[in-house]
Amino acid sequence: MNVAVRHGLIQILVVIACLLLFAGSPVHAQSSQDDKAPVSPIDVPNPGAELWNAVRERGGAEPTQQHPLTAIWEDVLQQQDTAAKSQARSADATSMINASGDQWRQLRREQLIPYGGALLLLSLAIVIGLSFVKRTAHYSESDMIIRRFKVPSLVGHWLMAGSMLFLAFTGLVLLFGRFTLLPLTGSDFFSAFASASKEGHDLFGPIFTFALIIFFFQFVSKNMLHYRDFVWMARLGGLFEKKPLKAGFFNFGEKTLFWLVIFFGIALSVSGFAILFQNLLPGRDLMLLATLVHAVSAILLICLVIGHIFMALSTKGTMDAITTGDVDANWAKADHSVWYEQMKEAGHIRKRIAHASDDAGKEIPVAEVSAEQTGAS
Amino acid sequence: MSERLEKGIQALRDKMDARIASYFSSCVHCGLCAEACLFATESQDPIYTPIYKLEPMRKVWSREYSFWGKLGAMIGVTDNVTEEDFANWETLVYDSCTMCGRCSMVCPVGIDITYMIRKEREAFVAAGYTPEGLQAATERAINIGSPMGVTLKTLQATIRSVEKETGLTIPMDVAGADYMALFSSMEIVNFEEYIAGLARIFKAAGVSWTVSSKGFEATNSGIQIGDPEAAKTIVERVVSAAEELGVKSVISPECGHAFMAIRWEGPNLIGRQYPFKVIHILELLSELHENGSLQLEGMTDTPLTYHDPCQISRRGGVIQQPRDLLNSVASNFQEMSDGGDMNWCCGGGGGVSANERADEIRLQAFNIKKKQLAELDGVETIVTACANCRLMLEDGLEHYELSHEVTGLTELIAEHIKQ
Amino acid sequence: MFTDFIDGPFWTFSVSVFAIGVIWRLISIIRLGVPGDLAVPREDGGAGGMRTILSRFMARPAVRKRALLIVVAGYMFHVGLFALLFFAQPHIDFYVDRFGVPAWAGMPRWLFILTAEIAFAGLIMAWLYRVMHPVTRMLSGIGEHTASWLVFFVMLTGCLALLEQYDSLRVLHFFLAELLLIYFPFSSLMHTFTFAFSRNYTGATMGRRGVDA
Q1: Residue among C11, B43, B72, B401 at smallest CA distance from A374
Q2: Is a pLDDT exceeding 90 seen at residue A18?
Q3: pLDDT per residue over B235-280, tens digit each?
Q4: What is the pLDDT of residues C50-73, one digit of tens each?
Q5: Dist CA C147 CA C142 (whole Å)
Q6: Cβ of residue B88 closer than 8 Å to a chain A Cβ
Q7: Are A151 and C121 a contacting pair at CB < 8 A?
Q8: Dihedral Cα B131, B137, B138, B140, nearest 10 deg
Q9: CB hemisphere CA count around B28 (13 angstroms)
Q10: Contact B26 C133 (CB under 8 A)
């Protein structure tokens, strides 16, 4: 199978897998407001389960089957809609207690964390499994190169990628740390670590949004769908064909990735800002919704990125494009034939300069280059 | 370590002053200088980055003036400059740098890279790594009196021709004249229109002037190659000629580096101030025009532009005068983008034009002038004020198959003298 | 114990290294001297020097057009870091506490956070440019990368400690800042001070020639 095709297909598969898993999970049903009855937990393997049980024992007000509702909780549920008076003018100031907060807590503990974690592990497993599949190089190296990305595009990509990875790391600590790290590190370390993650996450969030906006404008014109892409889609990316399908600057798989990143990026940014400025929201339920959207989008985006990183690292020549900005002419010919032809016509294929600039530079003699420059004159 | 290497390193060491130490201490390798250098932008090859051309000098600074360099040298891990470095950097220092000074204008920490290149070239001379073309020019300048081999006889022949054409007398060796004019070899050989223009203008403006038979050559190859002794010898010829005739001022001709050599570097080379003033011909023309002694008439409506010679405008400070002069004789003067103190070099300054080895990279760099010219509206005439720029522009235009005409500003002014 | 060491002796040590190192570097530059200029100047060199010290704070249009990204990133980082260093309330409190200087007005919290975001984005973009652009990639050595990453980690640990509730986080930030102080005089971070020297030398020379450099 053509590698470019495989590239696109795997990304689509990962996305579909993500979506299916989430569609099948009870997350959506649980977020409904009408359903105020306590939910029975699903028995999932959970490294922090014992700790949790201890917490529940200690609290005692947890409405679970093992611990039936206390009289206080019954009261709360009955009276939560009763209007109270308050001098405070903030959102939901007159609400005595908000029971949906507790529902969110259950949802987070019993669905989001186990299913989300499982999904992330599954993505990793897929990637690790695929990495055992031996891949042959899909092109032979030449000494001709084409400029694929200018420096600002490279910087735009890596600013977004870097801030996204930092946010993913700190976000995962906040979502899963309590069950994975806390038992390992103890509470002294973890509390500081979690606080640091939270502050770091808050600070880097807007940087991600800034990067996302720059990235969008840098790449959007190259990601507009073309009739070629519908052909690509209809013929399943040329999976059962001998000749690779035509692709422009980006193929359909890459375009899909772009739009999903933008979609989840916007979801994350909007919900993230809603959480950061929660006191400006009209109601607390909106904040809970934002938190849910934030977590779900984040997990899906991380799964996507896992696939993206795997494809970039495992496809020969691809990392060149996003580190140096230049690609081998044969790489372009194999994977992006239409773009290659355009570049060829415009005379943008040039000879690779092999010298100082490729390395640290200081110790590398410039003799060959200088000789080349002057010898030719 | 060979003797020539020893000499080269010693020369680099000797050049180290507070300026250079401050410059190397300040450089954060931001790469902005590459965006200002015509060799770097037009070749898109990072080795032409201006600050990178100073690597040999930086190595000596690092080894002898920086903590890590000294520490590294002590334990034997910091490299010293090698003969290979000199050999490799020779082309970077001489072929792909015109000392135009654009990089020095954009450096955010204010590094004068051009100043350091000038000093680094002195070390290359000491180590004996210099391009043949420049070596030969310098030898001719010392032995014959002109880098192009122009002798007094050649000058006399040109003057006879100019006198015949203009019907005016060129005053030779007149003691007590107000001004002593210098020429560049290129003007004597290729552009005698300049000398004719000068004669007409001075006649019209009633200027008392003369030409010395002992010191008429203004160019200074010693400055270009980086040989202070040669440079000093050449400057001294002019100074003693001017002192002998007792003139009040010496006029630097329409030549960039000649002005640099005689006006700004000269006194420092000979170690004393001159008993006379040095003035660039454009400064003088502007002065004469302003005080009314030079009356101009007629406006040409031919669209034209002005190419600033780097050493006259950016490095020499004569920026407004040519514009005032042009605006008084031309109704359609268009400024090139980046014109003035940030104008792009013709590619042939700093001795590059005398160095045939550099032709290819020089013509590649000329592409920037092509782009600048293409932005103008119907301009087919380029006015400049440097014989070397003029020749290099003509060469570049021919290479890129462009039909622009190049002319000197003094000639243009001479055409508009009020009769 | 580690905290006491970082707060006490190590702080004294790092500040001393910084102060002595910087002064020593500056003196060793000035000591080399500059050759006098005998050419009759068009205008005063001192005025030209001052003018260039100030005017180079603005990027020339010629280079702004060609390298917009690094110019913008450079401004974001430098302006942001300057504001953080001198106008972030926790820093002002620190200077007052350590040096006994009278307090001055700090930025409001929201501006402090916004400044930090800008400085971070600028620093990251500048470093990315450094490794992505062929010119800066060739020029940059271990010194530049060490300086970039050290500054980054100082800023990062600072932002991780924003809650100001965990002493361990504060000490981590403080420790890295001390490392930066020690590294400072031995690196191109010295441009913080020497930029004024360089601009002055260039500006004075060009000013004497009548050029606004």
Answers
A1: B43
A2: no
A3: 999 999 999 999 999 999 998 999 999 999 999 999 999 999 999 9
A4: 999 999 999 999 889 899 999 999
A5: 8
A6: yes
A7: no
A8: 140
A9: 24
A10: no
CATH number of A3-41+99-134+144-352: 1.20.950.20
* Cα A353 to Cα C135: distance, rounded to the nearest angstrom: 13
Kindly tell me the sign of the dihedral angle through the C-alpha atoms of A322, A323, A324, A329.
negative
Contacts of A259 (CB under 8 A, 6+ apart): A223
Sorting pLDDT into bands at 50, 70 and 90, what band is A230?
Answer: confident
Cα separation, C2 vs B38, in Å, equals 55
Distance in angstroms (rounded) separating the CA atoms of residues C109 and A260: 35
Burial class (CB in 10 A: 0-12, 13-18, 19+), B401: exposed
CATH code at C86? Answer: 1.20.950.20
CA-based nearest residue to C161, from C148, C179, C147, C174: C174
Using alpha carbons, select from B229, B129, B241 the residue that is nearest to residue B183.
B241
What backbone phi and psi angles, to 5 degrees, belong to B305?
-130, 165
Instruction: List the single residue in A with minimal CA-CA distance to C129.
Output: A155
Q: Give C71's contacts (C-beta < 8 A, 6+ positions apart).
A: B32, C59, C63, C64
Residue C93 sits at the chain B interface (C-beta within 8 Å): no
Tokens of B245: 């005739």
Domain ranges of chain A: 3-41+99-134+144-352
- Determine, for residues C132 and A158 on separate chains, whether the beta-carbon distance falls below 8 Å: yes
* C116 belongs to a structural domain: yes
Q: Could you tell me the two tokens for C175?
A: 């420790």
Task: Scan for tokens 């970077």, then name that residue.
Answer: B92
CATH of B3-129, one of 1.10.1060, 2.60.40, 2.40.10, 1.10.287: 1.10.1060
What gap in Å lies between CA A50 and CA B30, rounded to an integer?
55
Cβ contact B110–C203 (<8 Å): yes
pLDDT digits (tens, 9 = 90+) for B84-124: 999 999 999 999 999 999 999 999 999 999 999 999 999 99
Beta-bridged to residue B144, according to DSSP, are none
Computed from CA positions of residues A233, A238, A243, A249, in that sequence, does the dihedral angle turn out positive or negative? positive
Under 8 Å between Cβ of B334 and B326:
no
Among C residues 120-179, those touching chain B with beta carbons less than 8 Å apart: 129-130, 133-141, 143-144
CA proximity to A142, closest of A284, A344, A288: A344
- Quote the tokens at residue A324: 């140096």
First to last CA, chain A: 47
For B293, B323, B335, B336, C197, the CA distances from B377, given in Å and listed in that order, are 34, 18, 10, 10, 43
Least confident piece of the model among A242-251, A319-328, B226-235: A242-251
Residue C17 lies inside a defined structural domain of this protein: yes
Number of H helices, E strands in chain A: 16, 3
This complex has an ipTM of 0.96
Q: How far apart are CA B387 and CA A12, in angstroms?
A: 66
Q: Which residue has the tokens 């502007």?
A: B286
CA distances from C17 to B182, C21, C147, C182, C209 (A): 57, 5, 17, 6, 40
Please state, in angstroms and rounded to a whole number, the distance separating the CA atoms of residues A293 and B82.
63
Tokens of residue A104, six digits:
């969110």
B135-290 classified as CATH 1.20.1050: yes
Chain B, 239-298: which have a CB under 8 Å from a chain A CB? none
Closest CA to B375 of B339, B341, B323: B339
Q: Residue A365: its pLDDT value, please?
A: 39
d(C-alpha B339, C-alpha A226), whole Å = 44
List the alpha helices (DSSP H) in C67-190. 68-87, 89-99, 109-132, 134-139, 142-160, 167-183
Q: Is A195 on the interface with C (CB under 8 A)?
A: yes
Q: Angle A246-A248-A251 (CA atoms, 0-180°, nearest 5)?
A: 80
